[in-house]
Write a structure and sequence with these properties.
With 245 residues, the chain is of the alpha/beta class. It contains six helices and 14 strands. The strands form four sheets. Strands 9-13-8-1-6-7-14 form a seven-stranded parallel β-sheet, with helices on both faces. Strands 10-11-12 form a three-stranded antiparallel β-sheet, with no helix packed on it. Helix 2 links the parallel strand 6 and strand 7. The termini are far apart. The structure holds flavin-adenine dinucleotide. Flavin-adenine dinucleotide (FAD) binds next to helix 1, strand 6, helix 3, strand 8 and helix 4.
Length: 245
């Protein structure tokens, strides 16, 4: 089975997010980048599936050369080879079109993404890929089995679980429950240095959206301590100031 895993390069979850250029640009100075955590789940599942079917795992990222350490980490986790589409990921439409163009030239049985990126949280690329490739797309997968050319996907729905099947090829957006995240070991890190990483020129596609500004959340107010005997004061603050009751 040939599996493609789409990898987004995102700021570490502990990074302090700030903006520059009058709040029109994300300030990447000093930011540590990681593989999008949902993509790590997808990659870990892909490595298991490829191992059990003598298949292969390719990872793809749309990004400039600064994303290569993240791509090498994906290779250390167990991907066989990698592709970087050399362009700034300027919106979800742009990203999905770049990945679809690659898939049209290199067929895959299974395309895995994360359920969403943890930076822009668009949750759009998975469905766009399905549409662009004219194949089914399913998200948010909490469980995944692949047998006899069929994917079985578990999803959580209000009050229960939904189980559905789709014939391969299919695009699946993965979440917690699909696989235990794999940690790269020393052997994997060494092997990753020499695994193939193809750099591909982007196709000409105009982004459909443009971020015009960012806004940080309002700073948190000071904590107010209420004496334990002052129940009426507490209720008053919750009702009139915090407006939560
Ligand atoms: C400098 C800069 C400028 C930007 N300007 C804009 C803008 O003007 N308008 C706008 O809408 N967005 C903009 N973005 C956001 C950027 O385009 C997002 O990476 C893109 O929109 C996809 O993120 P998402 O949250 O929509 O992905 P989602 O749809 O939430 O991601 C789902 C899955 O798709 C895959 N995926 C996502 N991104 C990539 C990627 N780059 N390579 C490979 N796989 C990927 C991953 O598997 C991910 O888990 C900008 C980003 C940068 C860095």
């Amino acid at each position: 089975m040939r599996i493609l895993v789409c990898i987004s390069n995102v700021p570490d979850t502990t990074a302090k997010i700030t903006f520059t250029q009058a709040d029109t640009e994300f300030n990447s100075a000093g930011i540590q980048y990681i593989i999008n955590p949902y993509d790590e789940i997808a990659l870990s599942k892909a490595v298991d599936l490829a191992t059990s079917t003598s298949g292969s795992v390719t990872v793809i990222n749309v990004g400039d050369s600064s994303t290569e350490p993240t791509i090498r980490k994906a290779l250390a986790i167990g991907a066989d080879n990698a592709v970087r589409v050399d362009a700034a990921a300027s919106d979800a439409w742009f990203v999905a079109n770049q990945i679809a163009a690659y898939v049209k030239e290199n067929s895959f049985d299974l395309i895995l993404t994360g359920r969403e990126s943890i930076d822009y949280n668009g949750a759009q690329v998975t469905a766009m890929l399905g549409e662009l490739l004219h194949i089914p797309s399913v998200s948010i997968a909490k469980g995944l089995k692949v047998e006899n050319g069929q994917a079985q996907i578990d999803r959580e729905i209000e009050g229960g679980k939904e189980v559905l099947t789709a014939s391969l090829p299919v695009v699946i957006g993965t979440a917690e429950g699909v696989a235990e995240v794999k940690i790269p070991n020393m052997r994997g890190i060494m092997a990753a240095r020499t695994k193939p990483l193809e750099v591909r020129t982007a196709i000409a596609i105009e982004p459909l959206t443009k971020i015009t500004s960012y806004r940080s959340p309002a700073p948190r107010g000071a904590v107010k301590l209420v004496d334990e005997s002052d129940i009426n004061g507490l209720v008053d603050l919750l009702h009139n100031e915090a407006k939560v009751i």
